[in-house]
Amino acid sequence: MILNAEDITIQNIDHLGIVAGIIDAIGLVEIINELIGEEKGEKVSPGHVVKAMILNGLGFVSKPLYMFPQYFETIACEHLIGAGVKPEYLNDDKLGRIMDKLFIKGLDTIFFIIALKAAKKFGVSLSSSHLDSSSMHVHGQYNTSLPEVILESQKVENNQETEELAVKSPKEITITYGYSRDHRPDLKQFIIELICSGDGDIPIFLKLASGNQSDSS
């Protein structure tokens, strides 16, 4: 068969093919979909959205969320993320809704479940581990906090019955002054608590904490 030049479409994959392959090997898309659920009729699942965010974050770019679809117009979107996933489906509204659901479910819980699955998949020993905290300073005032939000009309279908759930959001962290491990006591900060395996220093637990939280807790 002879192909003409106009019949050939070239799309970049670069290093993201390896990243997408590891994500698929872990089963991250399926884990996310099971944890936070899929909505009937949505064009792209929560798991595929998270996969897209990881690919974007490891794509060496830094752009606002409203430009997110433009990034995937330049790469093999369906090949990397999933069949039927188009760049326009990955808009900032969709990303925002998924991030809200991830926050409500608990990001530390989600990270832990995925980390254990990855450790089992790749044979990482968890016989020993190391816990450490790091402070991350930020610029700006950060003088506002999230309200006590009650998410209304969370509908779950079960045997053709619809139940409305009111879900109270987890408590947000406080970005404030505290003991600065990166030597910027003049700036507000938050804390990252991380547990890594003794085998290969693989992160197995991640939690964000307020900037003034003590290590002793």
TrEMBL record:
UniProt xrefs under InterPro entries: DUF4277, IS1634_transpos
Positions of the DUF4277 domain: 9-115
Stored PANTHER family: PTHR34614, TRANSPOSASE IS4-LIKE DOMAIN-CONTAINING PROTEIN
Protein name as annotated: IS1634 family transposase
